[in-house]
Amino acid sequence: CRRSALPRQRDPATTTPPRGPRARPSRQAPDSGSAPPPPTPRRGRSQSGFLQRRGARGVFWSRGLEEQVPPGFSEAQAAAWLEAARGARVVALERGGCGRSSNRLARFADGTRACVRYGINPEQIQGEALSYYLARLLGLQRHVPPLALARVEARGAQWAQVQEELRAAHWTEGSVVSLTRWLPNLTDVVVPAPWRSEDGRLRPLPGCRGELANLSQAELVDLVQWTDLILFDYLTANFDRLVSNLFSLQWDPRVMQRATSNLHRGPGGALVFLDNEAGLVHGYRVAGMWDKYNEPLLQSVCVFRERTARRVLELHRGQDAAARLLRLYRRHEPRFPELAALADPHAQLLQRRLDFLAKHILHCKAKYGRRDLGLGYG
Ligand SMILES: Nc1ncnc2c1ncn2[C@@H]1O[C@H](COP(=O)(O)OP(=O)(O)O)[C@@H](O)[C@H]1O
Ligand SMILES: [Mg+2]
């Protein structure tokens, strides 16, 4: 089973911990010229045949397998949350249960609980909100908890009953915070076997026939979700999940056997991509530090959820990803104008990452896939 190598050497530029201060401006993202060269089309019969039996059609997971992915958050739940969170009056605001000390667990008048995320830096909430809407644009919202924005206003009706707690939180008046429903019974998740490695190397998902062949149906259903996660984290340049594990391999050879940060399994069984504040803004600013992990990780995946691949190819063809993202964001989030939108260089970087990903998908299709995407590619 061929493996994609990952950098192992300790590079001073990469020794900043994931949450550390920004060390240097981002370098250029991989432009389309650095995408894998288009290989000579081959039918890849044995690969397709193998994956067919193991739950994939060409480079796509089979419909049967996709249908077994737990539903996660629905569109209706997202709409209901936006409605509920906006009108809610906070009656309790506690420390604990929602991560770092600047976050709070809130209780609304109707008993609903929510995690309130406060950004030390405004780009954290901006990245969280933009990542949420990018997930919706890509059709991945089932994995990302619905999010609504709120404004910290000591005199506003929303916070009237928690004045003292608000003072104790030391949140700056007027700042924008995010509200997500508090999710009960989240459990930890370890990276699946095809990416687990003690030698700092990645194993390409479709090449390791033996490994896939030994997986149970439940493990394959997990892999379907992981392939979406890896695409999402590549697009948003989110270093604060699997990529930070890969980075830590330098001094912690067992890190891949530990829980992945900012990833849980929800009570219904679907993977929940929590805490996306590193995505799109902070992540783009430091993409140069992390892309040596992000790119091989992305290239280790050659099986995709068909709908996700279609969305990516549409956004590649349209060359209008940032505009579509902002339209969606503006349509659903009335506080959209209170946070900065995606800056132009970041909007261009999003498009370049989509282009890079689209080329990778087409490269996989040419190498392994037999089905036409029906979009005029390949
Ligand atoms: N919406 C939520 N529902 C339930 N638990 C949550 C929620 N958000 C965060 N948590 C809990 O808090 C932990 C840290 O959350 P995270 O959002 O990653 O915060 P931080 O900013 O500290 O990284 C999570 O691993 C989870 O246990
Ligand atoms: Mg976190």
From TrEMBL:
Lineage in the entry? Answer: Eukaryota, Metazoa, Chordata, Craniata, Vertebrata
- InterPro entries for the chain: FJX1/FJ (IPR024868)
Record GO cellular component, one term: extracellular space
GO BP: any one term: retina layer formation
| This protein's name | Four-jointed box kinase 1
* PANTHER family per the UniProt record, alphabetical: FOUR-JOINTED BOX PROTEIN 1 (PTHR13147:SF5)
Its source organism is Pan paniscus (Pygmy chimpanzee)
Q: Where is this region: Disordered?
A: 1-52
The organism's place on the tree of life at top rank: Eukaryota
